[in-house]
Specification:
The protein has 372 residues and is of the alpha/beta class. The protein folds into two domains: 2-71, Alpha-Beta Plaits, CATH 3.30.70; 92-371, TIM Barrel. It has eleven helices and 14 strands. It has helices at residues 14-24, 57-61, 115-127, 155-164, 178-189, 208-215, 232-244, 274-280, 289-293, 305-315, 345-371, and strands at residues 2-5, 29-37, 42-50, 66-70, 90-93, 96-99, 104-109, 132-135, 169-173, 195-200, 222-225, 250-254, 285-287, 320-324. The strands form three sheets. An eight-stranded parallel barrel has the order 7-8-9-10-11-12-13-14, surrounded by six helices. Strands 2-3-1-4 form a four-stranded antiparallel sheet. Strands 5-6 form a two-stranded antiparallel ribbon. Helix 6 links the parallel strand 10 and strand 11 (222-225). Helix 3 runs parallel beside helix 4, helix 6 (208-215) runs parallel beside helix 7 and helix 10 runs parallel beside helix 11 (345-371). The two termini are 29 Å apart. The structure holds phosphoenolpyruvate and manganese (II) ion. Residues 110, 136, 173, 201-202, 225, 255, 288, 291 line the site of phosphoenolpyruvate.
Length: 372
């Protein structure tokens, strides 16, 4: 059960003290307090964990300082959607809104190689009105002999160039908790010219210790990729690890499933799950067409498979697109075969726009079904 407090209730107030003293006397109930620091106000939620079946919603709602009470009926206690649950399905970061009704595009380099390529990429993004990108510094590779990413050494030039080209958010995978501090330090040293969305890759979806340390900070939002060989429920529980530790600025990323049934694509595209995740949870949903498809093949009409699956995700309501580009894919150090060319960026964005408009029309057409 979740008690959502009135926005003005502060932890040092008389009402708050009375409330928590009362709750502490409940038998077999443990309290967990979550504070959500927004731009204008801090919202406090008190989670009652344990034998809450005997508690009445009305009694709880009448307690001092309580605005609303949600009985958690399903799993995903923090991120899930529950009955009468009108908590937000969005968050703001660096002036950019990430929600279940917005769409943000993160085109960029799978792996940072040279400052020249980072600059070419970011210039193309700025020229096309984009404020987000992807830049991999820490790369999890199948072979220990493959390029592992430039790590912390590339962070200063990546962040400085982001500032120069007005990039507000960079999606960047981390594979170890120490990377968090490296990113924090590099941002400070360069004067915080941009923001970072921490990415947990598909190989680390169930690295619970990494999830806990990323969940314990609220400074950076997180993009959690779905595990490529586990159930959707297991991946959603991984997201819940982040939120239960305190960070609920989480975007859930679909990136295809590892199975030979997906051949010849790199992974079996799972974008049919966009509406499923939006129904089960309050997380915005990202699609990664590059790691799903993994190749630059085209359909018989001339459209790249990567653009086709992007369209499939967008028409199903995706809220974020993570997509690989490279100025010279044949020279890319990681995942060159799936990178789109800079000259394809405007075409890609235009295609997304067309499909997003179609999605919005579909939403309007079906809106009355929900209110019937
Ligand atoms: C990536 O986005 O660069 C990546 C490694 O993705 P995934 O974890 O989905 O394989
Ligand atoms: Mn990659």
């Amino acid at each position: 059960m979740i008690l959502i407090l009135k926005p003005h209730i502060k932890p040092d107030s008389r009402q708050y003290q009375q409330l928590t003293e009362h709750l502490a006397r409940l038998q077999n109930i443990e309290l967990r307090i979550h504070q959500e620091k927004g731009v204008e106000q801090t919202l406090t939620e008190i989670y009652l964990i344990g034998n809450t079946a005997a508690l009445s919603i009305e009694d709880m709602r009448s307690l001092p300082g309580v605005e609303n009470v949600v009985r958690v009926s399903e799993e995903y206690r923090v991120l899930g959607r529950h009955k009468d649950d009108n908590r937000a399905a969005f968050f703001d970061y660096q002036g950019v809104r990430f929600g279940q009704d917005t769409l943000n595009i993160f085109a960029g380099l799978c792996a940072v190689d040279s400052p020249g390529n980072v600059e070419k990429m970011m210039r193309a993004l700025r020229d096309n009105g984009q404020v987000c990108t992807r830049m991999g510094a820490y790369k999890p590779r199948t072979s220990p002999y493959s390029f592992q990413g430039h790590g912390k050494n590339c962070l200063p030039f990546v962040f400085e160039l982001a500032g120069k080209y007005e990039i507000k958010v960079i999606a960047m995978e981390i594979t170890h908790e120490s990377h968090l501090n490296e990113i924090r330090e590099a941002l400070e040293k360069t004067g915080n010219p941009t923001g970072v969305m921490l990415q947990i890759g598909t190989r680390n979806t169930q690295n619970f210790e990494l999830l806990k340390s990323v969940g314990r900070q609220q400074e950076f939002p997180v993009l959690l990729k779905r595990g490529f060989g586990i159930t959707l429920d297991e991946s959603l529980n991984a997201a819940e690890y982040l939120a239960s530790e305190g960070n609920r600025k989480v975007v859930f990323g679909l990136r295809g499933m590892k199975t030979s049934i997906g051949d010849p694509h790199r992974n079996f595209v799972d974008f049919a799950h966009v509406p499923v995740v939006k129904r089960l949870t309050r997380m915005p949903v990202c699609i990664d067409p590059s790691h799903s498809v993994g190749m630059r093949s085209r359909g018989s009409e001339g459209i790249l498979d990567i653009m086709h699956v992007t369209a499939q995700g967008v028409i199903a309501g995706a809220n974020m697109i993570l997509v690989d580009f490279h100025p010279e894919p044949t020279k890319a150090l990681v995942d060159g075969p799936q990178a789109l060319l800079l000259k394809e960026l405007s075409q890609f964005l235009e295609d997304v726009k067309i499909v997003r408009a179609a999605y919005e029309q579909r939403v309007l057409r079906f809106q009355n079904v929900l209110s019937e």
